[in-house]
Design brief:
300 residues; alpha/beta; Rossmann fold; 5-stranded parallel β-sheet; 10 strands; 36% helix; globular; Related to Phosphopantetheine adenylyltransferase; Cyt_trans-like; nucleotidyltransferase; Rossmann-like_a/b/a_fold
């Protein structure tokens, strides 16, 4: 399982939007048989809204390159706010690193293929404005979803929620019984697989954060009645669900939750987010892949 690590030493959105990074991602994906790319953002991020923007830019640009080449199965994770030594304790087959960091890092990686690149030279901290939603802003937060075929949009949602939460993150995972009408339902992952994927990703992003997984069979799950939850993290597409949760809490005499909205990865609100990254599309790709295999194995 070839694993590639790419260090990014800027959190400047103008840099991340430039043509430089897509070319860099493309070089990473050309490494022989790569099936896992970790992108390590080195500057510390101190605001959840800024984090949302950065993750959206990085994941979307990397995924565009993959989809254009038909490599939708390559796994991409974006890590942030981790000590540099964390990366030297992991196993990598190839590391892409900015030239100005090469000397301090190279000796710490053993038996690893190294590629240095010139580009953004200055590690930038956050903007001049005071952060509004800092790390560990809430003690207890919650979010929910199917988390089927965990994708970049899920990862952004989970990353921002973990960033905002200091003690406990409650994740409602839609029960199989509520998914019977989903498209390409035969390719839905069992709830045990979906739970495991969510837990593994959160342990990678923020080890030590208490994770509570709840199988939900209604719209609200525990968010409608649990008094200790302070915030609900939702995508822009599911804001109305947050409003439903707060109406339910009000009916139970509980304080409303702060609704923190994360941007949808891909798509536009005007057309109902038709082009957004979705589990449905990934299941469709699985269907197409199976159909293609069947044609090869059983030609007419």
């Amino acid at each position: 399982m070839p694993r590639v690590l790419l260090f990014v030493n800027t959190v400047n959105t103008t840099d991340l939007k430039s043509s430089f990074f897509p070319k860099l991602y493309e070089n990473c994906f050309q490494f022989a048989n790569v099936n896992y790319l970790t992108i390590a953002v080195l500057p510390r991020i101190t605001d959840a809204m800024h984090l949302d923007d950065i993750l959206g830019l990085i994941y979307s640009k990397a995924r565009e390159i993959l989809l254009s080449s038909g490599n939708f199965e390559i796994k991409v994770d974006v890590l942030f706010n981790k000590p540099k030594d964390f990366y030297t304790t992991q196993t990598w087959d190839c590391v892409f690193i900015p030239k100005d960091l090469e000397h301090s890092f190279k000796e710490k990686f053993l038996r690893v293929e190294f590629y240095s690149f010139s580009g953004t030279e200055q590690i930038e901290t956050l903007s001049k404005d005071e952060p509004k939603y800092t790390e560990n802003f809430y003690k207890v937060s919650a979010l929910g979803g199917t988390f089927d075929h965990i994708h970049d949009g899920h990862k952004i949602l989970l990353s921002v929620a973990a960033f905002l939460t200091s003690k406990k993150l409650i994740i409602g995972i839609t029960h199989d019984k509520l998914l019977v009408n989903k498209k390409y339902k035969e390719f839905l992952q069992p709830i045990e697989v979906r739970e495991s994927n969510v837990k593994n990703f959160l342990n990678l992003i923020k080890p030590g954060l208490k994770i509570e997984l709840v199988r939900i069979k209604d719209v609200c799950g525990p968010t409608g009645t649990a008094p200790d939850i302070e915030a609900l993290v939702v995508s822009r597409e599911t804001v109305k669900g947050g409003e439903t949760v707060n109406n339910t809490r009000q009916a139970h005499g509980l304080c409303p939750l702060k609704i923190f909205v994360v941007n949808v990865l891909g798509g536009r609100e005007e057309d109902g987010w038709k082009e957004k990254v979705s589990s449905t599309h990934l299941r469709e790709l699985e269907q197409l892949k199976q159909d293609h295999c069947n044609k090869i194995l059983h030609p007419k």
